[in-house]
Write a structure and sequence with these properties.
Layout lengths: L1 H11 L9 H8 L10 H13 L17 H12 L6 H21 L13 H18 L1 H8 L5 H10 L1 H16 L1 H6 L1 E4 L5 E5 H35 L10 H22 L4 E5 L5 H4 L6 E5 L3
Antiparallel strand pairs: 1-2, 3-4
Amino acid sequence: SFLSRLRTWLYLLDPSLLLSSDAEILKAHSLIGSTEKLGEKDEVAVNLSLSSSHTGTGAVLPLFFRPPAYLPISGPLVVASLLPHSGVKAALFWQFLLQSYNAGFSYVHRNSSTEKEKKTSLQQLLVIAGTVSYTTCAGALPQIFIDRLRIRSPPLQTLCRSILPIPLSAALAFLNVLTVRHQETETGIQVFDCNGNPAGVSKAAASKAVWETALSRAVLFGTTAAVPNLLVLFLQKRGFFQRNSLLMAPCRHISAALVLGTMIPVSFSLFSPVGTINRDSVEEELQAGASGQTLFYHRGL
């Protein structure tokens, strides 16, 4: 259920898990396949494995792209990207860092079950570079509009700086995941039957996995952009900042960080990491050999 996944992610996002070595992570990962009843210490080891190793391959994740590192790294980038900037260069700089990190995170947590080579191909590198370039420029559009069109009207500046970033952040987060993991929809991903036996490679399951992951990321960044901006607008309408204008920036920063920290486990919990798809929805060649009405796959993150 969603609540059980949320409770699990609250444990898995503990930043202290980043202090564990690769050897400790591999040792913890070996406990997942154990048939013995796990004790309290073993459950801690399982949490370490789930937070630090790839769900599909079991490989140790790079330190900066592990889920516990997502808030400490993306938090400052999100807050900085939502700030009113003095120029286009500053907006492009923070957007570039944010979109680059999100692209790397999506790529590391992809489903690589059908990839023959472990090394990243040149084509995939070009896709990632193009995604980062496009989303960086699109993310800086509000500041570009203000500077290039010389917008000085307060209502129009409010529209560009507080309203436009909300749908823009959600759309770019969705697009980032969709393009970085597009290769999965072309090659397909491994699916399993109810007994855990490989049933083949499915493009339909890959499309469902990528779409769900992109949607969860759009919810994360759309909500993170909406709440602080709408909160500041509400307080402005109430006259809260008339006598305390210096409180506007801290209010925006703190609320953005709090909302991001709250929404990360929520967005990660929206869909199960082990996705399901009806057997009738996959390719015809897989339907005959699969047992049961439901097939399973690793969704990625």
